[in-house]
Amino acid sequence: MKICLITISVSKKYNILAESLIKSVYKNFLKDYDPTIFLIGDDSSLISSKDLFYKIDCLPKPLITLLRYHYILQVKEMIKDFDLIYYIDSDIEVINTVDSNDIFPNSSDEYVAVKHFWEDSCKTCHLEKNKNSTAYVDKLENYYQACFYGAFTEKFFELIEYGNQMVNNDLNNNIIAKWFDESHFNKFMIDKKVKMLSPYYAYPSFEPMNSFVKMIHHNAHTKL
Questions:
Q1: For the chain, what is the radius of gyration of the CA atoms?
Q2: pTM of structure
């Protein structure tokens, strides 16, 4: 099983966080499979020689986030021969062992995604409410955080190609969805079979920790 883990990082701040992510992946993430890290960013020194790199330049906020699907499509030919592909935000850190039983899609699943930490307390505040946006929804059974997700390669690119097209459609109409790529991600997932991971796979770093937390998600207030 060939596994690729994609992350995107540009700028000094995010590269510091990406360095922590990459070290934690080497230590704790699917160690039995030795996944290849694919860094899309501006500093190739963050990864080892066995990994992959694609250079991009920093852009004003929120374009790096919004254009995430676009960047991944730029490297499609370089990763199409992997069996299983995950995307992970560069400001995540894997603090406990994550193995295949945790995050591999089941036979009945198409995608793996993380339930948003605040979903239960805010069922509607995350939704894209602009009816002119291609990401518009009036309700969702589950809301996923687009900081960590994965699928077998064919399904992974169905998501990426959809997201890229919808973002482009919105941009052509001068629209940016409320939560950028994540809004389109959740629209796509409405009718998909998803292995839903608990918020312990994207746990806010400022919340009290416990032994169940697998991955912490840093934010703008993280001290570097």
A1: 16
A2: 0.94
